[in-house]
Amino acid sequence: MRIRKAKEIDIPEIVSLTQISWEGATIAELLEKKYGIIGGKRWYEYKGEEIKSFCKNNLDKVLVAEEDNKILGYATYYIDENRKVGTVGNNAVHPNFRGRGIGSALHKKVLEELEKAGMEIALVSTLEIDKPAQHVYEKHNFKEFARTIHYSKKLK
Questions:
Q1: For 86, which of 12, 99, 119, 151 could close a Cys bridge (C-beta 3.0–4.6 Å)?
Q2: Strand pairing category for 85-93 and 121-123
C-alpha cells in the first residue's frame, strides 16, 4: 500500500468510497432516519456531493491510500494559516479493507502534512456514535476538549 496526493481522476472513486463507507456516521443520514428522504436525494448522495466539491476545490489537501491501482481509503484536511490550526477532514477506508491500519496510516500522513505546513494545533471532530473514528483519533493522542449538540425541528 502507498499513500499519495489525490489526482482529479481519483475523484469518482473517492465519491464512491464515501458513499459505501460512511453509513451510520453522518448528520445527513441521521436526518434522513428522523424525517425521511429530504430534498429528493438519499443521505449518501448529499455526502458524495460534499466530498466531490471539496476534492474539486482542494485536491492538494486530499490523500489516497492505494494498492494495485485501487483506492482503499482517503483522507482530507484543512489549513488555517492565520491561527496555525490544521483540521483533519473527511476520511474513509473501504469496508473490505478495514483493520489493516490504512486509516491510521492516512491519519499519520495528514498529521505530517499539517506539521510540514507549519500548523501548531491539529483538530478533528466526529459524531459520538462513530466509535471506530474515535478509536483512531485517540490512538494518535488526540484528547477530547468539547462536544457539540445537534438539534432539529420540522418546519411546515
A1: 119
A2: parallel
Name the CATH topology of 2-139. Answer: Aminopeptidase (3.40.630)
**Taken in order 52, 9, 100, 123, is the CA torsion positive or negative?**
negative
- Which residue in the block uniquely carries the three cell numbers 482542494? 58
Query: Is beta strand 70-80 parallel, antiparallel or unpaired with respect to 2-5?
Result: unpaired
| Residue given cell 473501504 in the structure block | 94
pLDDT, tens digit, 9 for 90 and up, residues 40-69: 999 999 999 999 999 999 999 999 999 999
- Residue 80's pLDDT band (cuts 50, 70, 90): very high
Q: CB-based contacts of 76: which residues, under 8 Å, 6+ apart?
A: 51, 54, 55, 58, 61, 62, 63, 88, 89, 90, 91
pLDDT band at 133 (very low <50, low <70, confident <90, very high): confident
